[in-house]
Every structure is written in C-alpha cells, then in structure tokens.
Write a structure and sequence with these properties.
This protein has about 170 residues and is an all-beta fold. About 0% of the residues lie in helices and about 45% in strands. It contains no helices and 16 strands. The chain has strands at about 1-5, 10, 15-20, 25-30, 45, 50, 55-65, 75-80, 85, 90-95, 95-100, 110-115, 125, 130, 135-145, 155-160. The strands form 4 sheets. A 5-stranded mixed beta sheet has the order 2-8-7-4-5, with no helix packed on it. The radius of gyration is 26 Å and the shape is rod-shaped. The model has no long low-confidence stretch (mean pLDDT about 90).
Length: about 170
C-alpha cells in the first residue's frame, strides 16, 4: 500500500489517501502504532480519503481473498499544537493592557498563567481578550486532543505608577 502524504509534521489535521496496485484489495489502517488486523478494535477499513487528527504512526495493510496479505506500510505523522501567540508580546505601561492569545491550530484550547507556573489544562482557559492589570510573566500553552501540546509562549508585562503631576505647574504668588 501507498500512504499519501508519506508522513508529515503539521499543526492541523492532515488529509490522507491510501492506495494499492491490487484491484479489489481492501485496505485496513491503524494510527496507534499497532499492526492493522481486520476485525480487531482499533483497525479501520479504508473507505476513502480521511482527515487524520491524531499524532502517531499510521500503518496500512492490503488484503484480498486468495492473495497473500501485503507487507505493512507505515508513515509517521507528527501533529503538534502550534505555539500560542501573545499580543501584545509584553509591555511596560502605566495602565492595564488588553491581551489577546491565539494559536494556528484549529480546535486548540489555550490555557494561561501570570503567577510563574507553567500552564496546564487546570490553568485559566482563554475565552477571549482580557485586561491584564498586574505585573508578571504571562505564560500560555495550547492543547488539542490527539496532538502534541505546544511549547510554552511567554511575555513580560510591567505596569507602573504614572509620574505625578503638579497643578498649577509652577506659579509665583504675592
């Protein structure tokens, strides 16, 4: 069997097509690294191109009655979650700042912290732009089921008290 594409690293699902030169052969596949065995749990009968949405080793077996089974073809697919983008990417300001987080991986969830801890799925889930009103290093990490977790993105935010103003600004009095 032939796997198209023959393995890939990607931040989103990958369209996969399986082909064989033997007319009438059925193709069976797995993504968990185990050899495909028709009728066993985890083995899928190929019915046409599909969106691969899991990281792993894709293995394919061609079977036709009256023929010897094919050798198993395999390809590595590394589906990793894109690193989050933090906007703005850090700031030194007088006033609180509105922060936006994003990831190029469709369907990913971004979790963030400001207390120095590395983000996990137990951290704060990003639900949209938020106002950051404290100093610290914002850390963000994106997660998607079946994908390798992203690296941790970070940005330093420093809020300071504005300089005092004197009013009136210098005056002479009699």
């Amino acid at each position: 069997p032939l796997i198209i594409p023959g393995g890939e690293t990607n931040h989103n699902t990958v369209k996969v097509e399986l082909v064989t030169a033997t007319d009438g052969a059925k193709l069976y596949w797995t993504i968990d690294g185990k050899d495909p065995k028709p009728g066993e749990a985890g083995t899928t009968l190929y019915a046409g191109p599909f969106a691969l949405d899991k990281d792993g080793t894709l293995k394919v077996l061609a079977v036709k009655k009256g023929y010897l089974d094919s050798e198993i073809a395999s390809a590595e697919f590394h589906l990793d979650t894109a690193n989050p983008l933090i906007s703005p990417n850090g700031a030194t300001r007088i006033n609180p700042v509105t922060v936006t987080l994003s990831s190029a991986t469709d369907g990913s969830k971004i979790y963030w912290t400001i207390n120095g801890d590395d983000p996990t799925v137990a951290s704060t889930l990003y639900a949209g732009p938020f106002v950051l009103a404290q100093n610290g290093t914002l850390k963000a990490r994106a997660f998607r089921d079946g994908f390798v977790d992203s690296e941790i993105a970070s940005a330093d935010f420093n809020l300071s008290v504005g300089a005092p103003t004197i009013s009136p600004n210098g005056a002479t009095s009699n």
